[in-house]
Design a protein that fits this description.
Elements lengths: L6 E9 L3 H12 L7 E7 L3 E4 L5 H4 L2 H6 L4 E3 L7 E3 L3 E9 L7 H18 L4 E4 L3 E4 L2 E2 L1 E8 L2 E9 L4 H7 L5 H14 L3 H5 L4 H16 L3 E3 L4 H14 L2 H4 L13 E3 L4 E10 L2 E10 L2 E8 L4 H9 L16
Parallel strand pairs: 1-2, 1-12, 3-4
Antiparallel strand pairs: 2-6, 3-5, 6-11, 7-8, 8-9, 10-11, 13-14, 14-15, 15-16
Helix pairs in contact: 1-9, 4-8, 5-6
């Protein structure tokens, strides 16, 4: 019954960085009920940064650092966090008409992410879907995923990490304190893993072949290689300019200065938070590594001595919402 309704497969291969965002946006914006459901496979030839739709650029990324490193920045039209993207990541982008997917986004994720999970299992990894839309191997994140509605299309986009430039990602964040960056950098290396770290050398092409097979199996429909229409190609160029425009990048920004981010999600399990309070007339600023609501490590930015080092140690295992109550008075 499915042979008459194949999924169009667009294999863009390694391509200019902006196409890896512009094409799926263009396909989604032009989608109608009679348009083919489409899966796009690609990866960028050169690095860039991508903001989630709801993020404030200058709160999350250090604009001067991005410019100095000559890293282009775009804003996608679906949610998720800021990501560093390069040729060592394989992108899969599912663009389906909203009437042909489940009504609940949780169920859409389960349907679309079954394929990358199965492909990782083919490679001998104990992969699983965690917390709606995060793919983990041994409780570590190995893929980034985002999704949402663009026009009439339901979109789920993700990547598989073969390698990852932890240093660049760490350096482009705009942080409230260097202690925040240090905790985040360590957590990123510990909580985000890669295929090459886990199984050694493997090619993107080999994994891509597995992924395409698993999409057909998981969705119960064949994938048929196709091409962009002339309209989609033209619209992609327009979309590329829009996603990188000053208007797009300044979306959600308020007039005046923008404060650095106070929270950074490393994975579904671990986040870094910044908070501050006042005790005895002294301002105490803290950076915290938090796992599922519990403090794993605290850095208190205040002049002190051994007593404050002891307080930092005592905060381990404390619910983050209670950190101020555990500080010594006076």
């Amino acid at each position: 019954m499915y042979e008459s309704n194949p999924i169009r497969l667009l294999d863009l291969g390694p391509t200019v960085w902006w196409r890896t965002q512009a094409v799926y946006h263009a396909v989604a914006e032009l989608m109608r009920a009679d348009s083919p459901d489409t899966i796009i496979i690609t990866h960028p030839l050169t690095p860039y940064l991508c903001l989630g739709y709801h993020q404030v650029y200058d709160a999350v990324l250090d604009r001067a650092t991005c410019e100095r490193r000559q890293l282009p920045v775009v804003r996608r039209q679906v949610g998720g966090g800021a990501t560093y993207l390069d040729i060592h990541q394989l992108f899969y982008q599912c663009v389906f008409h909203h009437t042909r997917v489940p009504a609940m986004l949780r169920d859409v994720y389960a349907q679309m992410l079954a394929a990358p999970v199965a492909a990782l299992r083919q490679l001998g990894l104990n992969a699983e879907l965690w917390d709606v839309n995060e793919i983990e191997v041994e409780r570590k994140r190995i893929a980034g995923v985002g999704g949402g509605r663009i026009g009439e299309a339901c979109v789920v986009v993700g990547n598989l990490l073969f390698d990852f430039d932890y240093t660049t990602m760490t350096n482009v964040w705009r942080v409230p304190a260097e202690s925040f960056r240090e905790l985040a950098a360590a957590a990123l290396r510990e909580q985000v893993t890669t295929l090459w770290r886990l199984i050694g050398p493997t090619t993107i092409f080999a994994v891509q072949t597995m992924l395409i097979e698993e999409f057909a199996r998981a969705l119960g429909r064949p994938l048929k290689r196709g091409k962009l229409t002339r309209e989609e190609t033209h619209h992609s160029s327009q979309v590329a300019a829009r996603l990188a425009s000053p208007e797009s990048l300044s979306l959600h920004s308020e007039n005046g200065s923008v404060a650095p981010m106070k929270s950074l999600k490393i994975s579904a399990r671990v986040a870094i938070h910044a908070a501050e309070t006042e005790i005895g007339g002294r301002r105490i600023r803290g950076s915290f590594r938090v796992r599922e609501g519990i403090i794993e490590e605290a850095r208190l930015d205040i002049a002190g001595g051994q007593a404050w080092e002891n307080v930092q140690a005592d905060l381990r295992g404390v619910p983050f919402r209670e950190w101020q109550e555990r500080l010594p008075v006076g």
